[in-house]
Specification:
Number of helices: 9
Number of domains: 2
Number of strands: 5
Strand order of the largest sheet: 1-2-3-4-5
Distance between the termini: 34 Å
Oligomer: single chain
CATH topology of the largest domain: Trna Endonuclease, Chain: A, domain 1
CATH architecture of the largest domain: 3-Layer(aba) Sandwich
Shape: elongated
Length: about 230
């Protein structure tokens, strides 16, 4: 969507809702000039924060799309996620787990996928692993994981007859300063949702004899750049 079209949409929604510019400015806690600039399509003159506030006041969902060299941008973004998935699967298999990457489910119309679904046949343990290169929306992450824990164990038991004795769910986070800061900033929430930490998670993976909810910080070696060096 172009800046001009975005501005016209903001104005159209405002008018449809019967709001004046001053009403919208008050609801979004911005100056009326900000609304005027946005409706003129002059988005470059408004901060992202104020733009999002105006959109939120109108119940408009702003979607940011960045493009670079066709589909190469997506491959670059997904590369970190894929590397973590590969590293976790390699570790799980070394410890005797059977792994199903990108396990998809559809239970009575509720759909979703689990990054890694794993089964330990010796201990009869089921494991759901979610991979995150960064934390963007903690509440959405927790809500999504809650749905998967509610649906997937019963579904996989019917599908593969995996009658579990132990159930684990682990969020694997790329070990970065930003992610550690995000976890520290919501310490109480993470402690409640994921009481086990990296060392405890790794110990459990070797002998999964009880239920576990954990957070695993995983460090990866930096990949060498594949493009031409910037000078």
């Amino acid at each position: 969507m172009t800046d001009d079209r975005a501005g016209r949409l903001i104005k159209a929604v405002r008018v449809h809702l019967g709001l004046r510019q001053v009403d919208l400015a008050e609801a979004a806690d911005v100056d009326q000039k900000v609304v005027t600039l946005l409706e003129r399509g002059e988005l470059r003159r408004v901060s992202v924060e104020r733009f999002r506030r105006v959109c939120a006041a109108l119940k408009i969902e702003p979607v940011l799309e960045l493009r670079w060299r066709g589909g190469l941008a997506d491959r670059l973004v997904d590369r970190g996620h894929a590397r973590i998935v590969e590293a976790v699967i390699a570790e799980l298999r070394r410890l005797g787990w059977e792994c199903l990457p990108e396990y998809t489910f559809n239970v009575y119309g509720e759909r979703g996928s689990v990054d890694i679904l794993a089964w330990h046949p010796v201990h009869r343990a089921l494991l759901l692993v979610e991979i995150k290169t960064r934390i963007t929306d903690m509440q959405a992450m927790l809500g999504s994981l809650s749905k998967k824990l509610r649906l997937v164990p019963a579904e996989i038991a019917r599908e593969r007859r995996w009658e579990r004795v132990a159930l684990g769910h682990v969020v694997v986070l790329l070990d970065t300063r930003a992610n550690r800061s995000a976890v520290a900033g919501h310490r109480a929430t993470f402690e409640a949702a994921f009481p086990s930490h990296t060392a405890q998670v790794r110990a459990w993976l070797r002998a999964p004899q009880s239920n576990l909810a954990g957070l695993w910080f995983l460090a990866l070696r930096r990949e060498p750049p594949t493009g031409r060096a910037v000078r």
